[in-house]
Amino acid sequence: MIRRHFSCPGPISYTLSLVLLQVLAACSPSPPLIPPGTVPIDLDKPAPDALLTYWLTPYLDPPRDPFTAGIVYEVGGDFFLGPEDSLRSRAPGLLPLLDQPSINWESFTAFLQNTWHTAAGHPERVDGWMQRAGNWRESEGWIRIPVKGSMSPFVRIVSVKESAVVAALSERARGGILQYPEGTLFAADHMNEGQIVETTIMWKRGPGKWDYASYDGGGRLAIEVFKEPKPLQSPVQCLGCHTGNRAFEPERSFPASASDGPDGARYIDVDDASRDATVTALLNEHLQRSDTILGLYATIYLSRVRSRVLSGRGTPADSLLLTQQGIPITSDAS
Ligand code: HEC
User: Fold this and answer.
1) Residues 6+ apart with CB under 8 A from 316
2) Considering the entire predicted model, what is its pTM?
3) Spacing, Cα 148 to ligand 1 middle (Å)
4) How far is the CA of 151 from the centre of ligand 1 (A)?
């Protein structure tokens, strides 16, 4: 990302060539200008510009790219936050970050852990998400999939609205990738002995951007979720697996069963009608990781549709849906 902080003059008539030479001498090899009053940011992570954009956007009012808003600068590959006046008028919530000689990953994430959810307007209680997106535990129209995998030692019941999966599939049918509409919510209730002990949320803030939030068993906003040997810090450690390209079990082996992991069996608890190998291979949903979603929601949804069609219980709309996705509507053997 290249940001210009000053520009050298454009074409100037020959009568001014002397002036031009002097100006060029002053501006060609000179070191890049570091905006005065800013604090250096050294996150020591890959793609620091993407990270800064992701994490700082919600602090701006209205939320926007902190680079184009003029509160974060890149100069010769180094990053700077400030100055104070700009923060005061555009992102006052970030002012405490200027109280240090430089910002590193540790001080940055400690700050985010304390302030990010408030800046992003996330509910203090898990019910707030139900008011925003519907009751994933009880309402009709939600797909609920129990999975025991790599993110948590607990069984998680992951819920998403069926209409959001259908919309993501329409996007794919139009030649795009599986992409969920803005405002889509994924909620994962982590279960221990029949009780919800944690809930993790992904909420689609904008194109390609998901917010993460976690809640404890009492439904209160939490800054960590249970994991051994160390808890997962929420939200700062949520991006890693979701935006990386590692494959996880049990999604990697689906529809075959996965081997046991450090916390015992790993599985997706769905019936045979939800495990179509042809659909799984065609969508390749887990590895494609379109939209940073790791579960197999579209795969399971289409497997169920195909199972209905193959057993003669499908509607014309079911067949059309499969055809639009390039999925055969006759059995693989025929
Ligand atoms: C160790 C890797 C890892 C980390 C770190 C991680 N996740 Fe996940 N997450 C997964 C995997 C794998 C799935 C797919 C479902 C499953 O296997 O549990 C998933 C699924 C989800 C889902 C359901 C939507 C989807 O992508 O399938 C939500 C919601 C979610 N995670 C929230 C979070 C939150 C909140 C955090 C931070 C506290 C987080 N995740 C951190 C691996 C991770």
Assistant:
1) none
2) 0.90
3) 11
4) 6
Please state the domain extents for the chain. 29-120, 127-272
Question: What is the C-alpha to C-alpha distance for residues 243 and 294, in angstroms, rounded to an integer?
Answer: 9
Is the separation of the CB atoms in 107 and 41 below 8 Å? no
Cα–Cα nearest to 214, from 203, 205, 225:
225
Pairing of strands 209-216, 39-42: unpaired
What sign has the CA pseudo-torsion 151, 155, 161, 166?
positive
Amino acid residing at 154: F
pLDDT digits (tens, 9 = 90+) for 112-144: 999 999 999 999 999 999 999 999 999 999 999
Taking only the tens place, the pLDDT of each residue in 99-117 is 999 999 999 999 999 999 9
Q: Is 331 helix (H, G, I), strand (E, B) or coil?
A: coil
For ligand 1, atom 10, the nearest C-alpha belongs to 151
**Which single residue is written with the structure tokens 């998901």?**
210
